Amino acid sequence: MTQAAIDLTLLAVLAPFAAALIAPFLTKHLKHNAAWPLAIVPAAIFLHFAGFIGPVSEGESFVASRAWAPSYGLDYSVYIDGLSMVFGLLISGIGTFIILYAGGYLKGHPQQGRFFSFLFLFMGAMLGLVLGNNLLTLFVFWELTSITSFLLIGFGHLRAASRRAAIQALVVTGGGGLILLAGVIMIISVTGQTEMSALLASPDVIKDSGYYLPIFLLVLGGAFTKSAQFPFHFWLPNAMEAPTPVSAFLHSATMVKAGVYLLMRMHPMLGGTELWMTVLPVFGGITLLVGTILAVRQTDLKLMLAYTTVASLGLLVMLVGTSYERALEGAVLYLIAHSLFKGALFMVAGNIDHEAGTRDVTKLGGLRGAMPITFAAAALAALSMSGLPPFIGFIAKEVLYYGTWGAPSAAMALTVTAVVGNALMLVIAAAVAIKPFFGPKVDTPKHAHEGPVLLFAGPVVLSVTGLVLALFFTATGTMFVGPMLSSLMGTWTEVKLVLIPPYVNAPLILSLITIGLGVLLFLQLDRLRSAIAGVLTAIGWGPDKGFDQAVAGIVSLSAAVTRRLQGGKMQTYMALTFLATGAAVLVPGYLGGGWPTMPKMPVYTFYEWGILLVAVLGLIAVLIAKTRLTAIVSLGIQGFAVAMIFMLFGAPDLVFTQLMVETLSVVILALVMTRLNLSPRDHRKGGAALVTGAIAASVGVGIALTLIAISQQPFDRSLSDFFTEYSNSIAYGRNIVNVILVDFRGIDTLGEIAVVALAGLCVLALIRVHTTKTLPEEDQAPAPSGSAKREAA
Fold first, then answer.
1. Residue 162's CB: how many other CB atoms inside 10 A?
2. Smallest Cα–Cα separation from 163: which of 155, 171, 175, 172?
3. NADH:quinone oxidoreductase/Mrp antiporter transmembrane domain location, by residue (predicted)?
C-alpha cells in the first residue's frame, strides 16, 4: 500500500467535519433528497478502509502523521491496525445507512439540516477516537464524542426530558473524560511516549512501573462512564430521548463502544494482571445481569433494546477482563455481531414508531402483513441477537462460551453469568421480533404501512450482513476477527471459525441451555416483567435518581456558598480575596520550609534614607488619615517613593510609568470618592479592624518574603540575553522594554489594555449609580440634599 493511500486516512477522519459544514446548505436546496449525496461521504470512507483489509489481515499496521503543535510534541497522527480498521469500517459502514435512515425518518423536519450536521460531527469524532495514535488527540476526540452526543441527545431541546438526558450524558461521560485525561497525562509521564504505536511496541512499561494502579483506575474511570458500566449505566437508556437515528448509531458502532475500544486498545499495556482480571469481570458481569433484568421490565421497544445494549457492553467488558485468548476472540466476534443486529433492530423500532405511531410493545400486534420488509429485517437481526444459527451471533456465542468455560479463573461464575445474560437477551430479541408482528391486528395511532426505502434499507442490509459474515466464516475470521484479536493480544494470532461445531462440546451444550432457558422465560414474559417491576419498585432508589439528588445537592451547596461568600458586601469580597492571596504566599513557604534568610541591612546614602523616610511617612499618613480621601492621597506618596527608587537604579522609563500610574490612580479614585455616596471615613472598629488588619499584614509579609526569596535565587540571564540580542534584529527597536511590551508580549499587552478599559467602564458605572441599596449599612451616608441629587444626575 502506498504512503499516499495511508496519508489519505488523515483526510478521511476530517471528511465528516467537512460534510457537517455543507449538510445544512445541501438540505436546504435538495429538501428531501439530501440524504443520498450526503451518504456518499461515509460510503467513501468505508471503501477507503476496505482497502486496508488485505495488508492488515496479513499482519501489517500503518501510521500516518502530520505535525500539529511541534513545540509541544503534538502530532495529528492515525494508527491503522486490525482493531482500528474494523471500528473504522463499522462506523463508516453503519454511518452510511444511518444518514440514509435519518433522511427518511426526519423527512420534512425543519431542522433536518442541523441534525445531519450533528451526525457528521459525531461520526468524525468517533473516527478520530478509534484511529487516534497520539494520546492527546485521542483524548480531544474522546471529549468531542461527549459534546456531539450532547447535541444529538438534546436535539428535541423543547422537551424537558430531552434536555435532562443530554445534560446527564454530558456530565457522566464528560466527567469520565476528565478522569481519562489524568490517566493520559500519567501514561505520558511514566512512559515518555505520546504515540499509541510506540506504547504497543513496549507494552510492559506501565506494568513494570510503580504507577500501574492509578493509571489502571483512571483509564477504567473513562472507559466505564463512556460504555455505561454499572453504576454509570443509567445515562444510556435515558439517551433514548434522542431521535431513533441517533439511538441506532449511538448503540451500534459509536460512542457506547468507545470505552470498550479503549479497554481493548490498552489490553496489551494494562491487561493480564490480577487486578485487571478481577475488576473487569466483576463489573462487566454485574452490568450484564443488571442490563438484561431492566430490559425485561420495559415495554418501550427502544428502552428494551437500550438496556440490552448496556448488558452487551457488560458482556464485552467481562470477556476482555479475562485476558484469555478464546474469551477475547469471543469479545471481538460479539462486538461485530452486536453492531450489526443492534443497529438493525433500533432502526426497526424506529420504523414501527414512525409508521404505526407507537413503540409500546403491549399496544402492537399483527404488523407482519402491513410491514413485511421491516418484519424480515427484524427477524434476521433478532435471530442473530438470540445466538441462533446460521448467524454471526451464533458463532460469537459459541466462541465466547469457549472463553468463559476455559477461563483461567472463576470459569463457572463467568459461564453462569453469560448463560443467564444471553438467555434474557434472547427474551428481548424474541419480544422485539414477535410481539409487534404476530398475533391479532391491533389498532395503532397511525395506519401502519411499510415505509420508504430510506427507512428499511439500513435494517435489511445490516441484518443480511450478519447472515453473510456467518456463512463466509473463514473469510470473516481471516479478514476481521484475526486482525482484531492480534491487536488485543499484542502478537499475531490466527483465528479459525466454524459455523456448526463438528461434535457435541461444552459450548454447544451451553448454547442449547441458553436457548431453552430463553424460550421458557419468553413464555412467561408478562409474569417476569411484573415480578421485576415489583422488586424494583420495592427497592425504589437507583443510580438515576441518585444522579438527580447529586445535582440537586450541588445546586443547593453552590447556592449556600454563594449566599455566604457573595452576599453583596464589597468588604467581604475584598477580605476573602486578600485572605486567599495571603494564604497563597504564606502557606507554601510554611509547609515546604522555604522561608528565605533575612538579608543584611545595606549601607544607605543620606538621600536613600530620605526616600525611605518619605515612604514610611506616607504609610503613617494612610494609617492615621481621618477621611477616605486623605488616605487615597496619602497612598500616592508610596507610589512616588517607589518611582524615586527606580530613578536611583537608572530606569527613567519606569519612573515615568510609575509617576503616571500613581497620578492617574489618585485622580481617578478621588473622583470616584466624590461621586459615590459613602461616609467620609471607614467606621470599622475593634474586632473587625483587627481581622482586616491581620489579613492586610499577612499579604504584605507574604509578598515581602516571596520577593526576598526570589532575589536570593541565582539570576537567570537567558531571557535578558534573548531580548537584548533580538529586540533590534527582529522587532527593529532599541528600547528593549518597549519592544517587549509591543512586540514580544503584544497579545498580553492587548489583554492588559482590555482590562484597563473594562475597569474604566466599571468606574463609569460606579459614577453613574443612583442607589446605595446594596451598600453595607455602616457605609451609607445620610440622604443627599436636593442639590446633591441634581449634581449626581
1. 19
2. 155
3. 133-418
Non-local (6+) Cβ contacts of 101 within 8 A are 244, 245, 248, 347, 350, 454, 455, 457, 458
- pTM of the predicted protein model: 0.81
654, 613 Cβ separation under 8 angstroms: no
C-alpha cell at 33: 433528497
Q: Count the Cβ atoms, other than its own, within 10 Å of residue 519.
A: 14
Cα distance between residue 99 and residue 119, in whole Å: 8
Residue 564, judged by CB atoms within 10 A of its CB (0-12, 13-18, 19+), counts as: exposed
- The H or E element containing residue 194 is none
**Separation between Cα atoms, residue 499 and residue 476, nearest integer Å:** 11
- Look-up of cell digits 509541544: 72
At residue 262's C-alpha, the angle toward residues 260 and 266, to 5°, is 120
Instruction: Provide the sign of the torsion angle of the four alpha carbons 703, 708, 709, 714, taken in this order.
Output: positive
Which of 571, 607, 782 minimizes the C-alpha distance to 696?
Answer: 571
The pLDDT tens digits for 135-160 are 999 999 999 999 999 999 999 888 99
Q: Which three cell numbers stand for residue 484?
A: 482484531
The whole-angstrom separation of Cα 615 and Cα 637 is: 7
Distance of CA 153 to the CA centre of its chain: 14
First to last CA, the chain: 79
Residue 383 contacts residue 332 (beta carbons within 8 Å): no
What letter does residue 370 receive in the DSSP assignment?
T
Q: Determine phi and psi for 254, rounding to 5 degrees.
A: -120, -115
- Going by the DSSP 8-state scheme, the letter that residue 598 receives in this structure is P
Q: What is the pLDDT of residues 552-594, one digit of tens each?
A: 999 999 999 888 877 777 778 888 889 999 888 888 877 776 6
User: What DSSP string runs through 113-160?
Assistant: HHHHHHHHHHHHHHHHHHHB-BHHHHHHHHHHHHHHHHHHHTSSTTSH
